[in-house]
Write a structure and sequence with these properties.
The chain has two domains: 133 residues, Aspartate Aminotransferase, domain 1; 239 residues, Type I PLP-dependent aspartate aminotransferase-like (Major domain) (Aspartate Aminotransferase, domain 2, 3-Layer(aba) Sandwich), CATH 3.40.640.10. Helix content is 37%, strand content 15%. The strands form four sheets. A seven-stranded mixed sheet has the order 2-10-9-8-7-5-6, with helices on both faces. Strands 11-12-14 form a three-stranded antiparallel sheet. A two-stranded parallel ribbon has the order 1-13. A hairpin with a 2-residue loop joins strand 3 and strand 4. 49% of the residues are buried.
Length: 397
């Protein structure tokens, strides 16, 4: 499927939903296809199996380098949801010693895969400020309260929010958590390849990644531990793959693509961040100037260079997304995992965004396939579609 095809109408389709899934990068595609020419079970000991194992281990090293970890600390999974579920367990080993966590403390803007708690029966959300950043004092109060009651916490904090792009104070939160004996899990899905990620500098114990957010294939993710001696009970026992940490035959083509995407993301991170920031700022300025009653949510906080969440007054986001789709512009009204569900964003609710604004918020997220022409076409479409949807004329600039 060509995401830049003309839909049979001679019009270019603009894809601005990289936070949902990025188009497959050519380097990742080539890596996956190279694995499909023959059998590739990485657990087999014959020549083809050894070749597949070499591919997996090469990719493991490339994914590890993306977050500053050694390869042996990477466990491949079917995606970030499984990686998070693997970490969201009360019992684990840290540095070879058994550890039990009594409660999950998660920021109020975490992904639903975290907020549903997985195997934690007891969970508490920590407030965020109006910009969507976790409030450190609120986290410290919760940590002190539970520590005084003899309860150890697992603290979950994402590196960057998938809806707003706002960056979280992960290192500060991790220092507070460790001071109270807590364990720290970081959802780095949206931040990987877009900002500098170093698992040691962040001071987290576990970090979750997804392949298809950085130009890899869907069906591959990873949980990275700060230490090789950090171990979690396997969700899938299987045949002992991934050193007994995740059973099931490795998805070698998807893992190979993951490695290639991670390598490309790491090598191009700084230049790509500058390029996307310029495109995003240009997009925001043009929409705010062209469309009356539009507001960028989280603009006063440090954000990912590729992400903007814009609220339009007197517009329903779902209606606007459909109208833009008919105009050949692909955007989102929130996290893709929630598509088809009617209801307010829990992220915007936690930020205290006015319900009228929140109901008209659409997310635009750029990536490796985005260029200046996409921006121009998107701005023109918003300028035409929003007034039509709300029945108002475009503001004269």
């Amino acid at each position: 499927m060509d995401l830049q095809d003309k839909d049979g109408s001679g019009r270019r389709r603009v894809y601005l939903d990289h936070n949902a899934t990025a188009p497959l990068h050519p380097q990742a595609r080539a890596a996956a296809l190279a694995c499909m020419d023959g059998p590739c079970n990485a657990s087999s000991i014959h020549a083809q199996g050894r070749a597949a194992r070499a591919v997996v281990e090469k990719a493991r090293g490339e994914v590890a380098r993306l977050v500053g970890a050694p390869g042996r600390n990477v466990v491949f999974t079917s995606g970030a949801t499984e990686a998070l579920a693997l970490a969201l367990q009360p019992d684990m080993e840290l540095a070879g010693k058994p550890v039990h966590c009594d409660i999950l403390l998660a920021s109020a803007v975490e992904h639903p895969a975290v907020l549903r708690g997985h195997r934690f029966a007891d969970m508490e959300t920590i407030e965020v400020d109006a910009s969507g950043r976790l409030v450190p004092d609120a986290l410290e109060e919760a940590l002190e309260r539970h520590a005084a009651a003899g309860r150890r916490a697992l603290v979950a904090i994402m590196a960057a929010n998938n809806e707003t792009g706002v960056l979280q104070p992960v290192a500060e939160a991790a220092r507070l958590a460790h001071r109270h004996g807590a364990v720290v899990l970081c959802d780095a899905v949206q931040a990987a390849g877009r900002v500098n990620l170093d698992i040691k500098a962040l001071d987290v114990d576990f970090l979750a990644l997804s392949a298809h957010k950085i130009g890899g294939l869907q069906g591959a993710g990873a949980l990275v531990s700060a230490e090789a001696t950090h171990r979690l009970p396997a969700l899938l026992a299987g045949g002992g793959q991934e050193r007994g940490r995740r059973g099931g035959t490795e998805n070698v083509p998807a893992i190979a693509a993951f490695g290639a995407a991670a390598k490309r993301a790491l090598e191009s991170r700084e230049s790509e961040a500058a390029r996307l920031c310029s495109l995003r700022d240009r997009l925001e300025r043009a929409i705010l100037e062209t469309v009356s009653g539009s507001h960028v949510i989280g603009h006063d906080a440090e954000r990912l260079a590729n992400t903007t969440l814009i609220a339009f007054e007197n517009v329903r986001a779902e209606t606007l997304v459909i109208a833009l789709d008919l105009a050949h512009i692909s955007v989102s009204s929130g996290a893709a995992c929630s598509s088809g569900k009617v209801g307010a964003s829990h992220v915007l609710a936690a930020m205290g965004v006015d319900a009228a604004h929140a109901s008209g918020a659409v997310r635009l997220s750029l990536g490796w396939s985005s260029d200046g022409r996409d921006i121009d076409l998107a701005v023109a479409a918003f300028g035409e579609v929003v007034p039509r949807v709300r029945g108002r004329p475009v503001r004269t600039v």
